[in-house]
Amino acid sequence: MPQNKIRILHCIETISSGGVEQTRLTLAKGLDKEKYELKIICTWKGGPVADALEKEGVELIPIGSFKHPFEWKKHKKVRQVIRDFKPHIIHGAIFEGMSMAAIGGKFGKVPVVILEETSDPQNRSQKAIWLQRLWIKAADKIIGIAPAVMGFLRDKVKVPEKKLSLINNGVGDLQGEEEDTILKLREDLGIKPTDMIIGSVGRVYDHVKRFTDILEAIKLLDSPHIKFLLVGDGPDLEDIKIKAEEWGLKDQLLSVGYQSHTEAYYKLMDIFCIASSNEGFGLVAAEAMMHHLPVVATKVGGLQNVVVDGETGFLVPPYNPQALAKKLQHLIDHPDLRTQFGQAGHHRAKKHYSAERYVKEVEDLYLGLLREKAYYVIANE
Fold first, then answer.
1. CA 113, 79, 39 angle in degrees (round to 5)?
2. Which residue from 181, 173, 92, 96 is spatially nearest to 138, judged by alpha carbons?
3. Same domain as 339, residue 197
4. Which of 39, 174, 188, 218 has its CA 20 to 30 A from that of 134?
5. What is the DSSP annotation of 132-179?
6. Quick check: 176 pLDDT over 90?
7. Which parts of 177-319 are beta strand (E)?
8. Separation in Å, CA 251 to CA 189, 204, 241, 243, 295
9. How far is it, in rounded angstroms, from Cα 360 to Cα 31?
């Protein structure tokens, strides 16, 4: 064991309830605390994920939102953290995080600089791509979180192959729920034995997550026994509730808000549906598969890699409630197929998207880059 811990400074945007901060929590839980010390620079922190990170001993350092990528007052704060913490590795994700890690790592002389593309950036502007190319020059490695993201990095950003590394996101450990808890939730939500529960989980930004497309698909299915369980909160939640009332679906929308522990809610679902317009990875789809759920997803970004069409679920075009309704109805009509897809999905998620696999691949990358930089004592095996 090395005498000194390996110090890792993560740079991301807000810490609330998104997939990026969830993966940082997975790393905080999975990396050996006797060997690693983690800190996170962010623009804002709040909520249960921030609390969980701090509980794991990770110091969170909010520096405020960026007005533009070269706001030197913010980068000066990053440099101060680097001087005080002296990280061996700086790891930036999301646009702001990549900016902080590239500039801070370059001028702060951090030995290893890693950038991570976490979005499905097919509509990114040429100016933003130019900035990303500039930052990549300062990086030792660029992580893509899904094959579709890797394609963007190769084809649009023109990242050299030797700098690229595919590391699929990982789903954190699932916590079991007592049967009494599940029964109590069903009772509280008014779920009857004859009801079919179509569920979705995520931050309620409807222009991206398209929860209203799922709601419209349920309207097309025209059955009072089909309920939409929506787990999540966000600025568009009230608009979705208003839309449900306008469409006569008020009693079929089961909105439970943000939940720090989603396991019990997945267990209420019969089918999982994610209708995003774009998605870097689609962590909730992998979570649903871990819970043996068949998944109906849009064929965008990382979702088209996570969900295998016709094997673990169905893929449909985005912005298409009619296509969603058709596949949902097929699964409703064929319970054996739901079971088959659920079992296949669970097997795939355990093999490709587990927390253990994710932590190991990230740790292997960290140690490999430290060895290349001749940090033999620190990266001692």
1. 65
2. 92
3. yes
4. 39
5. HHHHHTT-SEEEESSHHHHHHHHHTS---GGGEEE----BPPPPP--H
6. no
7. 196-201, 226-231, 253-257, 271-274, 295-298, 313-316
8. 10, 19, 10, 12, 23
9. 8
Least confident of 44-48, 214-218, 283-287: 44-48
CB 227 within 8 A of CB 197: yes
The DSSP letter of residue 226 is E
Any residues with CB less than 8 A from the CB of 34 and at least 6 apart, and which? 1, 5
Query: Measuring CA to CA, which residue among 123, 108, 109, 111 is closest to residue 78?
Result: 108
**Inside any domain, residue 12:** yes
Task: For residues 143 and 191, state if they share a domain.
Answer: no
Tell me the C-alpha distance between 262 and 83, whole Å: 39
The pLDDT value recorded for residue 119 is 84
DSSP state of 32: -
Residues 201 and 341 in one domain: yes
Q: What is the pTM of this model?
A: 0.88
Does 194 share its domain with 152?
A: no
The Cα–Cα gap between 266 and 289 comes to 10
- CATH number at 162 reads 3.40.50.2000
- Residue-number span of the structural domain to which 11 is assigned: 6-170+355-372
20/142 same-domain check: yes
